[in-house]
Amino acid sequence: MSEFVKIYSYGGVQEEYCKKINKIYHEIMKIEKPVAYVKTYGCQQNVSDSEKLKGMLSEMGFTISCDCDKADIILFNTCAIRENAENKVFGNLGRVKAIKKKNPNTIIILCGCMTEQEPVVQKIKLMYPFVDLIFGTHSAQEFPKMLYDILNKNSSKGKLVHIINKEDSILENAPLIRNNKIKAFISIMSGCNNFCSYCIVPYVRGRERSRRPEAIIKEFKLLLEKGYKDLTLLGQNVNSYGKDLEEQINFPSLLKKLDDFKYEYKIRFMTSHPKDATKELVDVIANSKHIARNIHLPVQSGSNQILKRMNRKYTKESYLEIIEYAKEKIPNVTFSSDIIVGFPGETYEDFCETLELIKNVKFSSLFTFIYSPREGTPAATLPDPVSKKEKTKWLLELLKVQESISQEICKKMVGREERVLAENYIENEKCLMCRSDGNIILKVPSNTDLSGEFINVNIVDSARESLMGSLI
Ligand code: SAH
Ligand code: SF4
Ligand code: F3S
């Protein structure tokens, strides 16, 4: 483990603060059942962090509610990946102002990626002075203490406290509240070292740091024992897992260890960076019992010129090589990807190369984004002559191509038999919502609620980008 990474084990002092907060609400404020509202923006990493914050809030005696109007604490866990992600937070902060006016005791908290950017914090202080506490992505382990200080008016800096801890850390053993009883996220590493030229993540999440394999395996095993069936391993680049650890372990070998339990379950993971996706990884998936036959491999662009300027460190050719290898080794494998349209200086010819790549690979689904300049990243200083209107036109062209590819993939699956996990039951439609091994949504009519179970189905029909099945 690199010297600068500090592992915090939740407990002791923070638990004491939880008790003190509980006391303040019950005995001083006379609120019998305090309520917390937690809104999460952004990626699964943030969802996973919010699960920890909710766990701590629950230890403080809060009930977690979906209704912010009656909440005693409103917490926004923010995302900074694109301008519209930030605008959503600002919009919701505007709405919260009225709640705070009606009930000045409501505590408003902002954390997550946006709060690691100084200009954003300045804007919040200026335009939303009713926010009580702001803390960055490395400070979750101190959440109970920070909240206690706010409630106790212990803050020396006035009402609004802004806490930024630059130390790259890992938080272990935090209490967790997971929303789902079948599917769970397990964060295996945090941070990112890649500095893709458009991306804010390395600046707001710090350097890559892997959790120790023992801690991951323990959490994974516990989830299986509790009955979880679909486990997604999280990291900004899971393929570089272990590079910062002393022990000899890499992502494929971690996967092998997690594939070895005697339960029926699925392992998924995201995100894989193509520069570090190896044949060893493909071989492990091909030989595994539990790893889903779906690889999310964000390509961003099909033009080598643009990939170079994005600092992605792979070429279209090397990307296609790993895709071809996976197609050869893993029967019925599906791929999904992320695409950025309109990177600064991208021409229509560059964009057409992305279209070509999409047609070549045939992704089952795509997450597509129009480039959004992020202050402080190298790409934000590049000339960007193509208009937003033109970029939107390109994006629509891409979506049309992708729609027919997704339909084609779904059509090809008709007639196949699969064993899938029933995730939800829609009572009024008498229908199970399932997910195929290749991560495609599958609807299966059923008179009984079989959610949480693996079921055998015949795939009988395909709709736009989903499938219909029947129970065998
Ligand atoms: N670590 C992952 C991606 C995390 S961010 C990876 O490298 O694949 C998720 C996606 O958001 C990225 O894949 C990219 O497609 C998109 N994205 C990131 N920064 C962006 C920006 N400035 N503008 C538009 N899309 C962006
Ligand atoms: Fe951002 Fe690139 Fe890191 Fe992904 S790999 S989080 S796109 S810098
Ligand atoms: Fe957003 Fe932070 Fe994730 S910027 S995408 S929440 S790592």
How are the strands of the largest sheet arranged? 3-2-4-5-6-7
Average predicted confidence as pLDDT: 93
Low-confidence stretches: none
Portion in helices: 25-40%
Biggest pleated-sheet summary? 6 strands, parallel
Oligomer state of the chains in this structure: single chain
Count, helices:
13
Classified by CATH, the class of the largest domain is Alpha Beta
Description:
This protein is α/β, with parallel strands linked by helices and 472 residues long. It folds into 3 domains: 5-162, 3-Layer(aba) Sandwich (Rossmann fold); 180-413, pyruvate-formate lyase- activating enzyme; 417-471, Beta Barrel (OB fold (Dihydrolipoamide Acetyltransferase, E2P)). It is built from 13 helices and 21 strands. The strands form 6 sheets. A 6-stranded parallel sheet has the order 3-2-4-5-6-7, sandwiched between helices. A 5-stranded mixed β-barrel has the order 17-18-19-21-20. The protein has a 3-stranded parallel sheet with strand order 9-12-13, with helices on both faces. Strand 4 (73-78), helix 3 and strand 5 (107-112) form a beta-alpha-beta unit. The longest helix is centred in the last third of the chain and has 26 residues, at 388-413. It starts with 5 loop residues before the first strand and ends with a strand. 40% of the residues are buried. Bound molecules: S-adenosyl-L-homocysteine (SAH), iron/sulfur cluster and FE3-S4 cluster. The site of FE3-S4 cluster has 12 residues, from helix 2 and helix 6.
